[in-house]
Amino acid sequence: MTDPKAWYVRSLFSRVPKEYDALLGLLTFGQDHYWRSFVAAKSDLPTNGLVLDVATGPGTLATELSQRLGERGLVVGIDLTRAMLQTAKTNLRGRDLGNRADWVLARAENLPFKDECFNASTISLALRNVSDAKKTLGEMARTTIPGGTVISLDFTRPTNKLFRVVYYDYLLGLFPVIGRIVSEAWGQTLSYLGRSILRARTGQQVENLMTVEGLVNTRSVPLTMGVVCAVYGKKR
Ligand SMILES: C[S@@+](CC[C@H](N)C(=O)[O-])C[C@H]1O[C@@H](n2cnc3c(N)ncnc32)[C@H](O)[C@@H]1O
Q: Which of 120, 141, 164, 231 could anchor a disulfide with 206, C-beta 3.0 to 4.6 Å?
């Protein structure tokens, strides 16, 4: 892999999968569960559907999606970090959902799947991390069936000025400190998270990328005072 951002992101996320879910839950005061339920609900999954979860990490959204599927439904989680996929596999097996998920080591920008094979495609808290967001959304659109939903949930910058002051203090001041208490790897990951959120795209910018990639009826919905935004559209 020659892409420096992908190298960097993989080296960060290789060292944190075990504590990822617990720490994210703590840092977001449990809001991350609500965000993922929102994404799963908007994915419009048929009972025995096939859904792609891009940059699945430790499989937290994949768990939520697989719980909504029937016995013959399947979630395919892809990620470029092997350690994340191993944790995802263990997590879903531990919840007796192992037979409703499959894991593939792959890059979001170059999905190893044929055209129009998934009922829906999701990416959560990760569009900031991929090297090419437009290509990623293009690949998600390509592999989704006509009428299927493509949805991205990601951190963004809240618009309320007062809330932003408090939030940025928390994000840039406290996050790295909490991270360093847990481990050096978490210290680095949480400083990266803060910096990446300051550069995050707005919901409208993600909607524009989706439109360029041929998705229609796009919408963006800010959640938790605009800390994150869910953006979704339909494959024509
Ligand atoms: C912050 S985690 C998000 C995990 C999970 N989706 C969630 O909702 O918590 C970001 C994940 O994106 C993965 N990732 C980053 N860039 C990627 C790329 N270009 N292709 C595939 N996975 C990527 C990382 O390996 C990491 O597991």
A: 231
